[in-house]
Write a structure and sequence with these properties.
Elements: H1 2-35, H2 37-46, E1 49-54, E2 61-62, E3 68-80, H3 89-107, H4 112-125, E4 130-137, H5 138-144, H6 153-157, E5 159-168, H7 176-179, H8 192-196, H9 198-201, E6 206-213, E7 217-220, E8 234-237, H10 241-258, E9 262-269, E10 275-283, E11 289-290, H11 295-298, H12 308-319, E12 326-328, E13 333-336, E14 339-342, E15 351-353, H13 354-359, H14 363-374, H15 378-387, E16 405-406, H16 418-423, E17 428-429, H17 432-443, E18 448-449, E19 454-459, E20 462-466, E21 471-473, H18 479-495, E22 509-520, E23 523-534, E24 541-548, H19 557-560, H20 562-575, E25 600-601, H21 602-611, E26 616-620, E27 625-630, E28 635-640, H22 643-648, H23 660-667, E29 673-679, E30 683-686, E31 698-704
Parallel strand pairs: 2-8, 26-28, 29-31
Antiparallel strand pairs: 1-6, 2-3, 3-4, 3-5, 6-7, 8-19, 9-10, 9-24, 10-11, 12-15, 13-14, 16-17, 18-21, 19-20, 22-23, 23-24, 25-27, 27-28, 30-31
Helix pairs in contact: 3-4, 10-20, 12-14, 12-18
């Protein structure tokens, strides 16, 4: 019995001790959780770590000649752990004045006293992180690395910096909408090549282990990244920044001159579809012009008279209309269902040929011709426009292309006048780039190319992918129609509405356009345009200029848009040697006239004469140096001039007829004589008579003429 009690007593004691221990644990847990919870949670947070993404350097965008259009520049957030164990109290206070002075002198945003106050305050309050400066350039960062305390580095000086990259455009606003941006000014809007080629330019992010310290600040644990980022690839665009500069300035001058609301310009290479320049300008609130919308690509408007080329080609293709076919335009007005169509000017004669209708941009003439053939089957006219791809987007590299619109007879808005209105540029919508591409296709013998904005992808300067020109439609019309269309467009500049562009050293061809855009404050607004190509005899480039809502009385395409076209064409023509005719492609019928030749080294003279195609050279010399004479108009005679042999024998040679360069080489280099030169050209006289003896170091004066 006593044993049982003894056992029970021990069991109860152990049970009591276990319970007491459990209560103690629970009490401690509650104390930690509630009484000291905030303290330990803060401490736990302060030691938390995580991996963060390290942004890769975004690839560059270049123009066709290698000029930098967009690049990523490194910027840094520079900070300091003022309470790191490696910085002793004495070391900190001995150097904080110098550090503050250097920071104030470099950034000039605070005084030395303000910097010192911020640093000492952080030191006293135990802060582990002080931001010294944000958006520090690479150059300034290198200077900071030499400052007191900071020069000790991360571990001994507490100096920490984090890199970020900022996108910069060296040419600022030039081609800004085409080059584009990502998340423009924090709006989330992205556009242009930056958006279209984002996956190419982006690269791959790296990773870095970061630790959170007091103040909810993250800092890197290691000096190096755990995984380094891979930089993005570069792209080479088709843009020529030199032409772009001329295009943008010329367009801006025209917009200012005419007080226009906005305008655009595109220059394209006909054979390839490469876009060489594209400018878009809009009047701002302060009357300055900026690029804020890509009108050339993203805005479809009524084309006006520029669509008349498509109407005329449709007539040629479907009904083989001849350029000498006549149409009576009367006094330049006509009516369809009581709706008036009128020409800009009263015609000098009532009967015009189809060629004259086009060159003078007669609305009445075009509508009458189209009505003559298509009145019974207007859908046939629309189908022909569709076959020329006028209703289809171009699917270009740059996003945001507007869809063109040409209604057909099944459209609910089709009316009895739709055929006529579409034929001369209304009840339809198309972008400037789309109409330019159509004209370019016509000039390209009917082959329609897709406009190109990117030529190549590069990695570290090496091409890894080249983009070839793409054909949209191999034949939008027959060669016969192409030939007639070219003749019509040439006539516009020679005799018609675009004759203000005539008189160049090269020929321009194209079409003017003037479209009514609607009433604004009770006044009709217009859109002036000119689309064409050059040189007309060997088409290389096509260009369109659109000026919208000029405020003055001058609003015709030939007067407003034409001069801008001419400025750009002149620039391109003057700098593109490949479109100039060779002036020496034909061999001369007569022998080249022999030039006057100075005495000198025989081999050098022979090389020059060979380059000049002077073939009749009478060589009567075996020596290295020769005297020359022109025997007649086409031949040169060489005779020996034994200068070196004469000098070696101590005899003064005959130097008349030689150049100063050759004489100095012969006399000074070998220390034969000291030469004094008077004048320039060839030696006409010498102070020492040829044939007399001399000693080394003798001075000789030579007169050159």
């Amino acid at each position: 019995m006593e044993e049982k009690k003894d056992i029970l007593w021990r069991v109860y004691l152990i049970y009591f001790i276990v319970c007491l221990f459990g209560v103690a644990i629970i009490s401690k847990i509650c104390f930690i959780q509630f009484a000291e919870g905030d303290k330990w949670r803060a401490q736990a947070e302060s030691f938390s770590t995580k991996y963060i993404d390290i942004e890769a350097v975004r690839g560059n965008i270049y123009d066709a000649n290698g000029s930098l259009l967009a690049t990523s520049l490194p910027y840094f957030e520079a900070g300091m752990d003022v309470n790191t164990d490696a910085i002793s109290k004495d070391f900190f206070y001995d150097n904080v004045d110098s550090l503050s002075f250097c920071l104030a002198n470099l950034f000039k945003d605070k005084t030395q006293r303000e910097y010192k106050r911020a640093l000492t305050k952080a030191r006293k309050e135990g802060d582990r992180w002080v931001v010294l400066q944000r958006d520090v350039s690479y150059t300034d960062l290198q200077k900071m690395k030499k400052f007191p305390i900071l020069r000790k580095g991360k571990n001994r000086g507490g100096f920490i910096y984090l890199q970020t990259n900022k996108r910069e455009r060296p040419f600022q606003s030039l081609a800004a909408r085409t080059i584009g941006k990502l998340n423009d000014n924090g709006t989330g809007k992205s556009y242009g090549l930056e958006l279209a080629c984002d996956s190419i330019l982006l690269g791959k992010s790296g990773h870095r282990l970061m630790q959170k310290i007091a103040g909810n600040v993250w800092r890197p644990i290691n000096d190096d990244n755990e995984i380094d980022p891979e930089d993005g690839n570069d792209i080479v665009s088709t843009i020529d920044i030199n032409v772009q500069d001329v295009a943008e300035n010329s367009l801006m001058n025209s917009l200012k001159k005419h007080g226009a609301d906005h305008g655009c310009l595109i220059l394209m290479e006909i054979k390839t579809g490469e876009v060489k320049a594209i400018a878009n300008l809009k009047k701002g609130k302060d009357s300055s012009y900026v690029e804020n919308l890509n009108y050339a690509v993203g805005v479809a408007t009524v084309p006006g008279s520029t669509i008349k080329l498509a109407s005329m080609i449709a007539l040629m293709e479907d009904y083989n209309m001849k350029l000498d076919e006549l149409v009576d335009i009367g006094d330049g007005t006509c009516y369809y269902s009581n709706r008036k169509v009128s020409d800009a000017e009263r015609p000098e004669k009532s009967n015009l040929s189809a060629l004259e209708v086009f060159e003078h941009s007669s609305n009445v003439g075009v509508t009458k011709l189209v009505t003559r053939y298509y009145a019974k089957d207007p859908q046939k006219f629309i189908d022909r426009l569709y076959k020329m791809n006028l209703n289809s987007p171009l699917n270009i590299d740059i996003p945001g292309e507007a869809v063109p619109y040409f209604k057909n007879t099944n459209d609910k808005t089709w009316s009895q006048i739709s055929l006529q209105w579409i034929s001369h540029g209304y009840e339809s919508r198309i972008t400037p780039l789309q109409i330019l591409n159509f004209y370019s296709a016509v000039v390209n013998n009917g082959k329609m190319m897709r406009p190109m904005f990117v030529k190549e992808i590069r990695n570290r300067g090496k091409a890894i992918k080249t983009f070839e020109p793409q054909v949209i439609n191999p034949s939008i019309c027959s060669q016969a129609s192409v030939d007639k269309a070219k003749k019509m467009m040439e006539a516009v500049v020679l005799n018609g509405t675009g004759k203000g562009l005539k008189g160049s050293s090269y020929q321009i061809a194209g079409k003017t356009g003037t479209a009514q855009m609607g009433l604004v404050n009770g006044k009709m607004t217009y859109q002036a345009s000119f689309v064409g190509y050059f040189p007309a005899d060997n088409p290389k480039y096509a260009c369109i200029v659109v000026v919208s809502a000029p405020s003055g009385d001058l609003y015709y395409g030939g007067s407003v848009a034409g001069p801008v076209f001419k400025d750009v064409a002149d620039k391109v023509y003057s700098t593109s040697l490949e479109i100039h005719k060779e002036i020496n492609s034909v061999q001369p019928k007569y022998a080249v006239r022999a030039p006057m030749v100075k005495d000198g080294n025989k081999l050098e003279i022979q090389n020059v004469l060979s380059a000049l195609q002077v073939k009749n050279v009478m060589n009567n010399s075996n020596g290295e140096w020769v005297s020359t004479s022109t025997m007649d108009s086409s031949s040169v005679n060489f005779s020996s001039k034994n200068i070196e042999e004469t000098l070696k024998r101590g005899i003064v040679p005959d130097l008349v007829g030689m150049t100063a360069r050759d004489i100095l080489f012969l006399l000074e280099n070998n220390n034969y004589m000291h030469v004094k030169l008077v004048g320039s050209g060839a030696v006409s006289s010498q102070s020492l008579t040829p044939g007399t003896t001399y000693t080394k170091g003798t001075k000789i004066e030579l007169t050159l003429l």
